[in-house]
Amino acid sequence: MIKPLGDRIVLQAIEQEEKTASGIVLPESAKEKPQEGKVIAVGTGRYENGQKVALEVKEGDHVIFSKYAGTEVKVGEDDLLILRESDILAIVN
Amino acid sequence: MIKPLGDRIVLQAIEQEEKTASGIVLPESAKEKPQEGKVIAVGTGRYENGQKVALEVKEGDHVIFSKYAGTEVKVGEDDLLILRESDILAIVN
Amino acid sequence: MIKPLGDRIVLQAIEQEEKTASGIVLPESAKEKPQEGKVIAVGTGRYENGQKVALEVKEGDHVIFSKYAGTEVKVGEDDLLILRESDILAIVN
Amino acid sequence: MIKPLGDRIVLQAIEQEEKTASGIVLPESAKEKPQEGKVIAVGTGRYENGQKVALEVKEGDHVIFSKYAGTEVKVGEDDLLILRESDILAIVN
Amino acid sequence: MIKPLGDRIVLQAIEQEEKTASGIVLPESAKEKPQEGKVIAVGTGRYENGQKVALEVKEGDHVIFSKYAGTEVKVGEDDLLILRESDILAIVN
Amino acid sequence: MIKPLGDRIVLQAIEQEEKTASGIVLPESAKEKPQEGKVIAVGTGRYENGQKVALEVKEGDHVIFSKYAGTEVKVGEDDLLILRESDILAIVN
Amino acid sequence: MIKPLGDRIVLQAIEQEEKTASGIVLPESAKEKPQEGKVIAVGTGRYENGQKVALEVKEGDHVIFSKYAGTEVKVGEDDLLILRESDILAIVN
Is chain A adjacent to chain F, meaning 3+ CB pairs within 8 angstroms? Predict the structure, then answer.
């Protein structure tokens, strides 16, 4: 189990479609870096003027995050991404 | 549905007129990057000294924003822009 | 109508005299960038330690502002400048 | 009349002596930029943790200021300098 | 005994496996810098708006930390790493 | 009289010995910039979270300061240095 | 006597062993800059949100500090180092 600290969030990136709109299959190197992920775990929250406030995202949320944000880590067999909540742009339902 | 976090706002850019004042139709590359947009969704607000305050813009507002601000994302078929309220300069009615 | 956000102010630049002290008419390119403007609209105020405080300038004020500050926008036929109150140096009466 | 905003101060620079210690008259270009000025007008004050506090300098004070600080403006026939109180180093009596 | 100050943490890096997935033994220079460590000692805490708050990690925790963060020190025979809690990304159980 | 503002301090530098340990008289250019001075005047204090607190150094103190800190000014015949209290490292008795 | 200001600390560096593990005596230039020191004097404390808090280290402590931190000063015959408490990483007993 992985437990991020403070305002950090653990994500699993969601791979983009491997076909372009016109149906061409893209080789690995031509695919854009994914910017969407599923929240695996969230930190205990962050401090705002001395008060601890809970994070806005929760486990299981599907989110859009800033490209190149965070740190890639390998936990067991999984490639995960740890980033701060401020790098999460929006929740998509 | 897309739900921006904190002080973030989701916009749909409004395309500038494709004709110059003198009536010449501009090719795509000569058009200025749009700086106006329609607000699609707003975040839950931001913290000011420990108190959460609501954002000044609301869904449906027509706004002017800082050129090059924010992150372009594709949600379904829509090209959207996610930026912070501080990148919104003014509301135009 | 244009409504600037927070501590932002909308100005209309006041063109400098087109003659030098010795009476020579200056071509467009030799004129200094104007640093004076008339306030068209003011934002709702800014936060100081969690309290919202009103701006010091008001609609109609004639102000001196920092050269190159702000963002030029075109609203209808008007070329306006949107800047933060901290870019306004002084009010001239 | 010129009314600086917030923690800003309007100064009139005091020209340095045009003779060196040995009595040689200096040409314009060899004179050091003046670092002393007379306070013409002071802003309404600045915020410290949400409380507005008055400035330490007042109209008529003779001050030493940081070289190259501030913005030179021409108001009517006067060349003035607008700077922040933090650029004022000391009051000289 | 080593007692880190404030929000600092003393770690002992955990060496990565010396074999790749396919069983090849890696020479020293081809191994990635370890990003996992065991907490040896934690500081007394940090200040949040004037209140001292305890750290989230505790002695014995297995943590993931930011690559290149902190300072390597040699205490007796041990090579240790001293870093700030903000450089700890997550606790792994 | 010179009255520094806020957290500023006026110093008179104390010239270092002009002989090296071995008794060689140093030419002007080989002498290190002095880092010690005598406090001539102190400002009214600085703000800490909205409360004004007095400075730690007082007139007449012999202090060590950061090399190259502050601004050199000439007041009458005296070469003085104006710096912030944070550039004062220690008081030497 | 030397009295550091605020959150500053005066250290005397502790010279590293002049022999390597294998017993080779190192010439001066091959020795690493010492990162350990003995606390000679501590400042009066620092402000946290308007409250003055005492420093964590005290006179006589043996500490590890950030390489290249602080300012080297000569007081009488002693070569001392003045640094901020935030440059002290840990106390070693």
Answer: no
Contact of E56 with E89, CB cutoff 8 Å: no
Percent of chain A with pLDDT over 70: 80
Cβ-proximal residues to A19 (8 Å cutoff; 6+ apart), any chain: A25, A26
In terms of CA atoms, which chain F residue is nearest residue D51?
A: F50
Please work out, in degrees rounded to the nearest 5, the angle formed at the alpha carbon of residue G50 by the alpha carbons of E5 and D64. Answer: 110
Q: Do A2 and E50 touch (CB under 8 A)?
A: no
Query: Which residue in this structure is represented by tokens 């379904």?
Result: B76
**pLDDT tens column, C15-69:** 765 555 566 665 555 555 568 999 999 999 999 999 999 999 999 999 999 988 8
Q: Is G49 on the interface with F (CB under 8 A)?
A: yes
Reduced to 3 states (helix: H, G, I; strand: E, B; else coil), residue B29 is helix
pLDDT tens-digit readout, B26-63:
555 555 556 899 999 999 999 999 999 999 999 999 99
Residue E70's Cβ-count burial label (10 Å; 0-12, 13-18, 19+) is: buried
Residues in chain D predicted with pLDDT less than 70, given as ranges, are 16-34
Helix (H, G, I), strand (E, B) or coil at C51: strand
ipTM value of the model? 0.81
The pLDDT profile of chain A, 93 residues, written as one tens digit per residue, is 899 999 999 999 997 655 555 666 655 555 555 689 999 999 999 999 999 999 999 999 999 999 888 999 988 888 999 999 999 999 998
HSE-CB at B10 with a 13 A cutoff on CA atoms is: 22
pLDDT the model gives residue B1: 86
Q: Does residue A3 sit at the E interface (CB-CB below 8 Å)?
A: yes
CA-based torsion, E27, E28, E34, E37: positive or negative: positive
Q: How far apart are CA E87 and CA E44, in angstroms?
A: 16
Domains by residue range for chain G, with CATH: 8-14+28-91 (2.30.33.40)
Q: In 3-state terms, what secondary structure has residue E28?
A: helix
Nearest-Cα distance to chain F for D63, in Å, is: 9
* Residues whose CB is less than 8 angstroms from the CB of residue G61 and which lie 6 or more positions away in sequence, other chains included: G38, G39, G91
Tokens of D63: 């001050």
Mutate to test the interface with A, among B42, B55, B73 (most CBs of A within 10 A): B73
